[in-house]
TrEMBL record:
EC number: 1.1.1.205
Origin: domain of life: Bacteria
Organism this protein belongs to: Paenibacillus spongiae
EC category: oxidoreductase
Keywords: CBS domain, GMP biosynthesis, Metal-binding, NAD, Oxidoreductase, Potassium, Purine biosynthesis
Protein name in the entry: IMP dehydrogenase
A GO term, aspect molecular function: IMP dehydrogenase activity
Length: 498
């Protein structure tokens, strides 16, 4: 046997050490944009994410509802593959039918707001949707900005609620009659636009803009742009029925596939990637691996990104059942080093995804600092309204159901198959509850604020800079105690986490 000299470590064993924070290094100036698929040096990846988040390929996490909600926030879901092919394809179709369109405003106002005011608002409502008015001239000068945290009102209640939504910003935008409120609402409803309606004094709606990637320095024509643009969506596949599943998913409009397996260092994955590359123009990620050899094998087979992690998932009992796996931090660090070397030698950058084992928000920042380009999470997303499972009251608390793909409930034997007889011979996952946490957007906003704030402490305005500049230290077991509240008597509100 070969023995590793270093113990296998996980995120909680590390901390970041601040670097110099320059004055321009503010959360408003931090970009979390990150590549999703491989690209050549000097070129751009075919797909990027605006936030480094993907939701797990799991029955209890990623369906069409989660996928649309996360795409709207700038991330991506991989819709679970442990379901009949046509049902998975229908979920893809549903996500692709949502329109990320926007309507441009022709307000004739000149409110006295500077670009900095607008950027401050943008920062405050990062990852919300933005409505931006224009002055009606060809260069579309920016006049104001409003943010909608969550435009989710019922058809019946909508007229009543609109005034509530506009309250914080009504001094910013009001204007000339555009279209009637009811016409605008029909438009918003029909196209599922996630926008804030701006009502003018005549109770008519001015035009709206919805554009998450709005660039204040760019010029946009005053018309309905790019309106049919749909959200990007991913799907999980396995290395068993891919010859039937992949054609159906591609036909449904999937953007990115990922081979979902607990152990991706296999000839079955190579064959699956080769089949997809030979027959379709669709991106495909592979995994999971935990070392340099596994990473290089999948990259040489043609993988567009590689997923890292075995046994660290919150519902995973693979390490107990089979004794395989590796601490998530050690796995990411080794694979990231292999990726750097591969990039230096070939000029091809292959993104890596740290999958599973994120317990605290700062673990995400650590994963990114250690070289991950994005993370995949199950437990994190399972807690939200948008996950596909039931919300229940257990004792005095609300919880959501959450079960592993290797549990008897999911019976996703293809994910664990090592050849031979089909079927789940023993469980590698559990069936559980997670505390209910509310809406995806609210929680994402908080998590993203923490990541951006930490990046500022570390003097980095992008994930790439963070990967280059981060200084990371191991912590001793004793100093871990120092990290939480200690040597004080906590008040009840702190104990209950309020
Ligand atoms: P977590 O974010 O809940 O800690 O981990 C989610 C990840 O656990 C998934 O993306 C997947 O890689 C893995 N997973 C899913 N089901 C099981 C299982 O039943 C599992 N063992 O390990």
């Amino acid at each position: 046997a070969t023995y590793y000299n270093e113990p296998s470590r996980t995120f909680s064993e590390y901390l970041l050490i601040p670097n110099l924070t320059t004055k321009d290094c503010t959360p408003a100036n931090v970009s979390l944009k990150t590549p999703l698929v491989k690209y050549k040096k000097g070129e751009k990846p075919a797909y990027s994410l605006n936030i480094p988040f993907s939701s797990a390929v799991m029955q209890s996490v990623s369906d069409d509802k989660m996928a649309a909600a996360l795409a709207r926030c700038g991330g991506i879901s991989f819709i679970f593959g442990s379901q009949p092919i046509e049902e998975q394809a229908n979920m893809i179709r549903k996500v692709k039918s949502y329109k990320a369109g926007f309507v441009v405003s022709r307000s004739n106002l000149t409110p006295d707001h500077t670009l900095q005011d607008i950027l401050n608002l943008k920062e405050k409502y990062a990852h919300s949707t933005f409505a931006i008015t224009h002055d009606g001239t060809a260069n579309g000068k920016l006049l104001g900005i409003v943010a909608s945290r969550d435009y989710r009102i019922s058809r019946d209640a909508r007229d009543k609620k609109i005034s509530t939504f506009m309250t914080p910003f009504d001094s910013l935008v009001y204007g000339k009659t555009g279209i009637t409120l009811s016409e605008a609402n029909d438009l918003i409803w029909e196209h599922k636009l996630n926008v804030l309606p701006i009502v003018n004094e005549d109770q008519c709606l001015d035009y709206l803009v919805f554009r998450k990637d709005y660039d204040a320095h760019k010029e946009y024509p005053l018309e309905l742009l790019d309106a049919n643009k749909s959200y990007i969506v991913g799907a999980g596949i396995n290395s068993k029925d891919y010859k039937e599943r992949v054609p159906a998913l591609v036909e449904a409009g999937v953007d990115v596939l990922v081979i979902d397996s607990s152990d991706g260092y296999t000839e079955w994955q190579r064959e699956t990637i080769e089949y997809v590359k030979a027959n379709f123009d669709v991106k495909i990620g592979a995994g999971n691996v935990v070392d340099r050899e596994g990473f290089l094998y999948l990259v040489e087979a043609g993988a567009d990104f590689v997923k890292v992690g075995i046994g660290g998932g919150s519902i995973c009992i693979t390490r107990e059942q089979k004794g395989i796996g590796r601490g998530q931090a050690s796995a990411v660090i080794e694979v990231a080093a292999a990726r750097e070397q591969y990039f230096n030698e070939t000029g091809i950058y292959v993104p890596i995804c740290s999958d599973g084992g994120i317990v605290h928000d700062y673990h995400i920042t650590l994963a990114l600092s250690m070289g991950a380009d994005f993370v995949m999470m199950g437990r994190y997303f399972a807690r939200f309204d948008e996950s596909p499972t039931r919300k229940l009251k257990v004792g005095n608390n609300f919880v959501k159901e959450f079960w592993g793909e290797g549990s008897n409930r999911a019976r996703n034997w293809e994910r664990y198959d090592t050849g031979g007889k089909s079927g789940l011979l023993f469980e590698e996952g559990v069936d559980s509850y997670v505390p209910y946490a509310g809406s995806l957007q609210e929680n994402l906003d908080k998590t993203i604020s923490k990541i951006k704030s930490t990046m500022c402490n570390c003097g980095s305005k992008s994930i790439e800079e963070m990967q280059r500049n981060a200084r990371i230290t191991l912590v001793s077991a004793t100093s871990l105690v120092e990290g939480g509240a200690h040597d004080v008597i906590l008040k009840e509100s702190s104990l209950s986490g309020e």
